[in-house]
Amino acid sequence: MQRYFIDSNVPESQKISIGIPHYHHIINVMRHVSGDQLIFVFNAGETYIVTIEEVEKETISCHLTERLEKTVELPIDVTLACGLPKGDKLDLIVQKTTELGIFSIQPFEAERSIVKWDEKKETKKRQRLQKIAQEAAEQSHRVHVPEILPLLTSKKLLLELAQYTHVFIADEEEAKINEQKVFKKLLNTMKINDKLLIITGPEGGLSRNEVTSYIEKGAISGSLGPRILRTETAPLYAMAAISYEFEL
């Protein structure tokens, strides 16, 4: 069943009317009709199977049929601080890490980031990325849509580290010296509901100055295996490892 995120609380009447923008996708794209069932995710992640009762012009009347209790969310909150990469790589990172269970994504301008966002560009980029995250969350049947957080500079990112239980820097220099067990040891120490921040760099990686400043604020650095990973590969590797550790 197709899943939709509804920006409202569960109605006490167990009935709900849906309009734009979901109407177009439900009726014109998916070709649903009266009697068909969908999955609606309401605020706070409450999830229900709903049945379409009536289709009118730009409005769909539905009733809530069954509450779904199963959750597919990771037991820890993982935020990715991603140094701005070139091209459309961030689109891919957002889509795939959402499918893999990321909680939120924090873009930041690393010292080696070639790409720069001005205020106007940031607004459009975040809107686009948020849409990608929502579509990926719907496709992967999640109950949480990862938030694309406002862009930070590398220095401002430092001020955010204190809010996380653990901060891990995916550092290619550590891979070169064969330091491969730090990430595994970190995951083994984490507890349910912990908040993990993973910092990955852009093309060219993080500068030594950045890594040192993050470590001084309590972060730990390590590699993601013995090979040097591309900027769009490292976050996917990390999320897959986290899923294996906590879900498989």
Mean pLDDT: 93
Count of separate DSSP helical elements: 8
The major pleated sheet works out as: 7 strands, parallel
Text of the CATH class of the largest domain: Alpha Beta
N-to-C terminal Cα separation, in Å?
25 Å
Provide the gyration radius in Å. Answer: 20 Å
- Overall outline: elongated
**Structural class computed from helices and strand pairing:** alpha/beta
**What is the total tally of β strands?**
12
Helical percent range?
25-40%
Protein name: Ribosomal RNA small subunit methyltransferase E
Catalytic activity: uridine(1498) in 16S rRNA + S-adenosyl-L-methionine = N(3)-methyluridine(1498) in 16S rRNA + S-adenosyl-L-homocysteine + H(+)
Domain Ribosomal RNA small subunit methyltransferase E PUA-like: 23-62
Family: Belongs to the RNA methyltransferase RsmE family.
Quick synopsis:
The protein has helices spanning 22-29, 89-99, 119-139, 154-160, 172-176, 182-189, 208-216, 234-247; strands spanning 3-5, 15-18, 37-41, 47-56, 59-68, 77-83, 104-109, 147-148, 152-153, 166-170, 195-200, 220-222. With 248 residues, the chain is α/β, with parallel strands linked by helices.
Key descriptive features of the protein:
248 residues, 12 strands, Ribosomal Protein L25, Chain P, Alpha/beta knot, single chain, five-stranded mixed sheet, 2 domains, elongated, alpha/beta
